[in-house]
Write the structure tokens for this entry.
Amino acid sequence: MNFMVRVFELLDAFKKVRTLHRVLLIGLDCVLIAFAFWLALELRLAGVSNVNGISSYYWKSSGFLLYWAQFLGISVLCISGWYRQLIRYSKSLSFYWVFPRTGLAVLLLLLVATLHGQDSPPRSFWFLFWVIFSGLIVLSRVLARDLFRVLSGRRAVRAIAKSTLIYGAGDAGVRLFESLGIDNRFKLDGFIDDNASLQSRTLMGLPIFSSSKISDLIDRFGVGQVLLAMPSISRRRRF
């Protein structure tokens, strides 16, 4: 019974952490939307007679859209499942799916401005706002993902991670690196390749070594394993 109670307590704590995580992301996105709105209007109205860098006329006539932009932007992202993705395991390409979501939010905002009847920002503002809004969202997720991986990797180094080299600096090696980069059991220290033109260069931020230096690398890094990423290598070479 005590064990089951403990399990439910842990599940409840996890839900609270996950909820807090989403609340923080939503709060961050609200700030980013406001900044994107301000910057788009600033860029569009540069050179127009203004006060403090922004046309007071357009702020009076369309400043209310800022609140609608935050409401619609967050609503579209929530309904479309944007906040359900696991950032830590996301690839960069997956973040670009935010563009159709933000595009829908901007179109809805444009509809609100049209129905409101007052003068709305110039047409080019909408494109600028969409690009800046989308770019900031993508950048924030990429930075959050990479920061989480770095912190997680440091904890892994102190724990059970094994020093690892990847044999093969080609496409297979890159795919293997990407799959292991989020696995705390591996501490990737470099690549090994027989191609002399690749040696002494770097790949994914890691050095590429000659296969003749494997023994030295094992001593230097305390390598615990070498993973093959060269499907064509002969059985004899493997051993």
